[in-house]
Amino acid sequence: MCHFWCRHTAILPTEVANPVASSTANKNAPMDAYRQLFDGILSQRLAPGTKLNEVELTQLFSVSRTLIRQALQRLQLEQVVEIHKNRGAFVAAPSPDVAEQILFARHTIELAVVKLACQRCKVTDVLKLQYMIDLEQSAINQGDMATALRRSGEFHLQLAIVAGNQPFVHALRGLISQTSLIITMYNHGGGNACARDEHSQLLTAVKQGDEAQSQKLMAHHLGHIAASCDFTQSPQMANLKGAFAHLGQVQQA
């Protein structure tokens, strides 16, 4: 068990050719593929270790292989996909030991982040952070846990931005994505259920400039996530067509 702290849409064809719309669609294609794949991973449709075949993905998303590679490369930077020479791309599958290291690193950095955020937080920052909390809760209410996980990560990343330390921002960008993957792999008990209250309490402490309380709340928040991780789970593999069957249903509607 863990001894340290742990814890979008396919492009549809248009009926009338529009150079501007076509150009915009082409620019958005890598992002759309990225979002679909990221959501597929976080919603557990794509299990850790699943092979992401480029040819099959080009057919599923109706985009070029180059654009699929761009999406996979971004996911690699987010550290939720691993790309191996001569083997291809796979959904990352951190072992319990690696997961423990990732989450301990995040715990260490985030305690420093909230301390700095207390010193630098402005009214505009509070409003933006509250908006992010509201978006996360909206996703939870809709049962969209993949989006809720992403919104939660955005809240934590924004705290790092408020803290004004770019190395922290860079480090957390990867750690937060990896944490989302770890939650997807090992948390099967609704570990995000208390996220809104915990984030709201944390924001209140930061807004008041209470460094000690904000660090206490952050440690509790990450510890709460740790308690919901079950490293005895063995996620099952998934096939790509099954994982993205809903895209075909959307296009036929």
Counted by DSSP, the helix tally is 11
Q: What Rg is obtained from the alpha carbons, in whole angstroms?
A: 19 Å
Q: Which range best describes the helical content: under 10%, 10-25%, 25-40%, 40-55%, 55-70% or over 70%? A: 55-70%
What is the CATH C level class of the largest domain, in words?
Mainly Alpha
Give the H and E element order. Answer: HEHHEEHHHHHHHH
What is the makeup of the main sheet? Answer: 3 strands, antiparallel
Query: What is the CATH superfamily label of the largest domain?
Result: GntR ligand-binding domain-like
The average pLDDT value, as a whole number, equals 81
The strand line-up of the biggest sheet is: 1-3-2
CATH topology descriptor of the largest domain: Four Helix Bundle (Hemerythrin (Met), subunit A)
Oligomer: single chain
Identify the overall geometry: globular
Spans of at least 5 consecutive residues whose pLDDT stays below 50 are 1-25, 249-253
The percent range for strand residues is under 5%
Which CATH architecture of the largest domain? Up-down Bundle
- Which structural category fits the helices and strands? mainly alpha
